[in-house]
What we know:
Helix content is 45%, strand content 12%. The protein is an alpha/beta fold. It has five domains: 4-72 and 196-241, Rossmann fold (3-Layer(aba) Sandwich), CATH 3.40.50.620; 82-184, Glutamyl-tRNA Synthetase, domain 3 (Alpha-Beta Complex); 256-325, Glutamyl-trna Synthetase, Domain 2 (Glutamyl-tRNA Synthetase, domain 2); 329-369; 378-451. The strands form five sheets. It has a three-stranded parallel β-sheet. β9 (209-213), α8 and β10 (236-240) form a beta-alpha-beta unit. The chain is elongated and about 105 Å long. The relative contact order is 0.10. This is Glutamate--tRNA ligase. Its EC number is 6.1.1.17. It comes from Roseibium alexandrii (strain DSM 17067 / NCIMB 14079 / DFL-11). Catalyzes the attachment of glutamate to tRNA(Glu) in a two-step reaction: glutamate is first activated by ATP to form Glu-AMP and then transferred to the acceptor end of tRNA(Glu).
Amino acid sequence: MTVTVRFAPSPTGHIHIGNSRPALYNWLYAKKMGGRFILRFDDTDLERSKKQYAESIETDLRWLGISPDVIERQSDRVAAYEAAAEKLKTAGLLYPCYETPDELERRRSRQRALGRPPVYDRAGLKQTKEERAAFEAEGRKPHWRFVLPNHAGNPFETKRTEVTWNDLCRGDQTVDLASMSDPVLIRADGTFLYTLPSIVDDIDMGVSHIIRGEDHVSNTGVQIAIFEALGATAPVFGHHNLLTTRDGEGLSKRKGALSIGSLRESGVEAMAVCSLAVLTGTSQAVEAVPSMGALVEKFDLTSVSRSSAKFDPEDLKGLNARLVHEMPYADAKDRLDDMGVGGGEAFWTAIRGNCETVNDAKGYWQIVGGPVESRIEDEDREFIAKAKDLLPDGEMTLETWGEWTSALKAETGRKGRGLFMPLRRVLTGLDHGPDMKDMLPLIGRKSILDRLP
């Protein structure tokens, strides 16, 4: 069997780091198992689904390193969903209900007041043709519910009906269908909720494994029942914990600060996002993994914890810095060129250890090329004048800094911070930064002399 997985976002907004978790889990699982990854847009909500969001999701996934094998759109497959709905209606498994949302809520409130679970009582299934015609005459349109197989022939006498599966992340799972309401599959306006289209697509597209968030665990028993009602075997399921902030707050498309696009624009590395999204909430250490190939090797669904996957957005900074500190020049070159940063490999090697993002290189390039706001304390003015006199002749090399400071130490008696800091401040305007032995050849003799008053 070829492993086939899918990621099925709704193109109603930009994806964020929380959405990236199931996308990455599915893609990594496919790669690890030699399988296929389908990007399937749940775009049947024509009013809210936008082409620009679908395009941004594709862009964001590819930036993360996820290249779909197939791209599908549910808006192209409505006929298949209608055919499946007719099959269920013919089998007596999909029935019309005419209650309004207000009527349903009042009924649920009464059940709660009586201490009963707010489970739908299948009133729609009891209605006669005449009663349904009367509702139609009032102008009501029905929503359609699927009859759960939680009875022994009489749908009004439910019994405990356990649906079990071995979850890739959570182990053996059980859901009792008797504790659940018959799910609505078609709205009163004739549009489909995601459940039926998703199942029909999974069947038609040969999806073998469904890996998604733990908020779908309770839905799984219902969906297995619908798979079987349509004559199909349900895929293997895996439900991972959800990514939340440290205070337990969930993520949503409305919180744009953690959108993949905004993280990319702020200079965060894709592998920092991937490392955090995949490893947080597992038994593995959250570390900066340098490549998707290395992440495939580390990926293990059985390491996913049953507890929440809380993360701190600040953790991205540390992961990102570690990736930048070890980044080869070849990987940074194009971005440096786009920013107008020169200096080649020597410059990048000199400054990368002080960068949290590749974008930080622009500031250090300004220090190399100038102008620089030199800083000189009053007590250091004589020392700086002496430093100008003692600057070694010729081109600046990696040995120049050592020669220069040794001569200054012998002449002035200064050492340590008192020796090095005034030179750093006057040449770079900073208290901290790249090693000065690497910076001198980059700044060059003329600029060094210009900065020494």
